[in-house]
């Protein structure tokens, strides 16, 4: 065998090895990308499901329930393309299709939840932030129209206001029941101040009037109190600064 033939065989062998290595690399990358997509879709489906099931009932409208159901369905159908043999996923998609076909007649079974503590208020706020994130991601991927996403961002802002109003109102009423009128007054004052800081305070005029009525009652009770109290509750004065200075809405939003 001539040296030229030997050289050609060596070169061909090297080329074959390179091609095999490249193919193996591409196959491995494809597997990893598929696994990454499956994990991401599974996580997003779980998050949407958790929001749909665990948000307080007073904040879940049929329209919101339907939105979360449709997002789960769309994400689940994408996941099914990656794993067509998943019988459990197939059954879940059938359930979601039945619910989605109900439109706004979809049942809302979420129980109302009392917002009476800073921890509970923060928990619900984190849920609203999570909802905001899911809507933004869905809009970026074309699962939700930009105009619909913009409307839902406004809806989430309203829900955030509702959260604060409920918290300050409930805390104030609880203080009234416990015969602590000064603490009640502070809670109602914080609620009124929060609404006054909103970009469109007129939008929440009814809630403001209700809080002002509670505040007037608390002021009257304070005047009837014989002994002044010097210590205000730390939960009211310090505990909710993180809620008042909500970072979510200070960030630039591409849908605004």
Automatic annotation (TrEMBL):
Q: Which residues cross the membrane?
A: 6-27
Keyword Transmembrane listed: yes
Write the record's keywords in alphabetical order, separated by commas.
Membrane, Transmembrane, Transmembrane helix
Record-given protein name: Uncharacterized protein
């Amino acid at each position: 065998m001539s040296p030229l033939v030997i050289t050609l065989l060596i070169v061909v062998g090297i080329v074959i090895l390179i091609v095999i290595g490249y193919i193996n690399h591409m196959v491995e990358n494809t597997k990893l990308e598929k696994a990454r997509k499956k994990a991401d879709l599974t996580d997003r489906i779980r998050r949407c499901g958790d929001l749909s099931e665990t948000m307080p009932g007073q904040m879940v409208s049929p329209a919101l329930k339907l939105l979360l159901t449709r997002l789960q369905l769309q994400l689940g159908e994408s996941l099914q393309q990656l794993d067509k043999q998943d019988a459990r996923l197939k059954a879940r998609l059938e359930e979601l299709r039945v619910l989605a076909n109900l439109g706004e007649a979809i049942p809302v079974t979420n129980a109302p939840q009392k917002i009476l503590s800073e921890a509970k208020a923060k928990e619900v706020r984190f849920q609203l932030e999570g909802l905001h994130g899911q809507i933004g991601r869905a809009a970026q991927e074309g699962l939700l129209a930009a105009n619909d996403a913009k409307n839902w961002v406004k809806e989430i802002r309203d829900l955030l206001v509702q959260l604060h109003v409920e918290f300050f109102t409930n805390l104030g009423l609880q203080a009234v029941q416990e015969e602590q009128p000064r603490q009640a007054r502070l809670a109602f004052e914080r609620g009124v101040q929060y609404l006054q800081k909103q970009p469109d305070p007129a939008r929440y005029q009814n809630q403001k009037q209700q809080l002002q009525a509670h505040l007037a009652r608390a002021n009257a009770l304070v005047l009837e109190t014989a002994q002044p109290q010097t210590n205000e509750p730390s939960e009211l004065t310090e505990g909710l600064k993180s809620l008042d200075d909500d970072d979510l809405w200070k960030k630039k939003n591409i849908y605004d």
